[in-house]
C-alpha cells in the first residue's frame, strides 16, 4: 500500500543526498521514479536536485499554483512510476500537499517528500505544516549543532555573520545564509524566544 512520507530536518542535514540515493535504489532495481523540486530554489541550477557531497539528478520543477496530481497523472501516461520524490517540500502549497496525498490514495504511488520543518523564526512552513498533518509516515533526518546536540532550528545571518530575526519567510540560500543549531543555541542567537 502506497504512503505519503515526510522526511524533515534543518539545513545541511543531507536530505537531498538521501533523496537521490533512494531514487537511485529504485532505478537500479529497474523501477522508474519521478523527481520534483521547487522552481523557487535554483541554487543547483534549474530543474536540478543536488547534494553538497556532489551528486545530482534532473527533476521537474513545481511552482505555486501547479496541480501536482495532474502533473503526476500526465507523467504516468508515459510509463509506470514506482515512486515520486519531492525535494524542497517546504515550498509546497497546502493544496499541493493534498494533491500529493491524492496521488497516494487514488493512484497508489508512494510519494516521499524531503524538506525543512521550520524557518529561521522557528515557525512552520505552510507546506511542512500540511505534510505534518497528512503524512502517513514522518522521519527526522538528523544533523548536529556546533555543540554536538541534535540541531532542530536554523538561524539566518547576513553577509557579516550577524543573526537576522525579521524578514520574509523565504530567502534562498545555503551555508552563507543559514546555520543549523539546537534549540538552546538558537534561543541564544535570536535573543531567547519570539514571545520573550
TrEMBL record:
Keywords noted in UniProt: ATP-binding, Cytoplasm, DNA synthesis, Kinase, Metal-binding, Nucleotide-binding, Transferase, Zinc
Any GO BP: thymidine metabolic process
Keyword Flavoprotein: no
Subcellular localization: Cytoplasm
GO molecular function, one term: ATP binding
Positions of Zn(2+) binding: 145, 147, 182, 185
Binding site for ATP: 9-16, 87-90
Family matches, as InterPro entries: P-loop_NTPase, Thymidine_kinase, Thymidine_kinase_CS
PANTHER family xrefs: THYMIDINE KINASE (PTHR11441), THYMIDINE KINASE, CYTOSOLIC (PTHR11441:SF0)
Identification of the protein by name: Thymidine kinase
Organism expressing this protein natively: Pseudooceanicola lipolyticus
Amino acid at each position: 500500500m502506497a504512503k505519503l512520507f515526510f522526511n524533515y530536518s534543518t539545513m545541511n542535514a543531507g536530505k537531498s543526498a538521501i533523496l537521490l540515493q533512494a531514487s537511485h535504489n529504485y532505478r537500479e532495481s529497474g523501477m522508474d521514479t519521478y523527481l520534483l523540486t521547487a522552481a523557487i530554489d535554483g541554487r543547483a541550477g534549474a530543474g536540478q536536485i543536488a547534494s553538497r557531497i556532489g551528486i545530482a539528478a534532473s527533476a521537474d520543477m513545481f511552482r505555486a499554483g501547479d496541480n501536482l496530481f495532474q502533473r503526476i497523472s500526465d507523467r504516468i501516461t508515459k510509463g509506470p512510476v514506482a515512486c515520486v520524490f519531492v525535494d524542497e517540500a517546504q515550498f509546497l502549497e497546502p493544496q499541493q500537499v493534498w494533491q500529493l496525498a491524492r496521488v497516494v490514495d487514488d493512484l497508489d504511488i508512494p510519494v516521499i517528500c524531503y524538506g525543512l520543518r521550520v524557518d529561521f523564526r522557528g515557525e512552520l512552513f505552510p507546506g511542512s505544516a500540511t505534510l505534518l498533518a497528512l503524512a502517513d509516515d514522518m522521519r527526522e533526518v538528523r544533523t548536529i549543532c556546533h555543540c554536538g546536540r541534535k540541531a532542530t532550528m536554523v538561524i539566518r545571518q547576513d553577509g557579516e555573520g550577524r543573526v537576522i530575526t525579521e524578514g520574509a519567510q523565504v530567502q534562498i540560500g545555503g551555508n552563507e545564509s543559514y546555520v543549523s543549531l539546537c534549540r538552546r543555541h538558537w534561543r541564544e542567537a535570536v535573543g531567547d524566544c519570539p514571545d520573550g
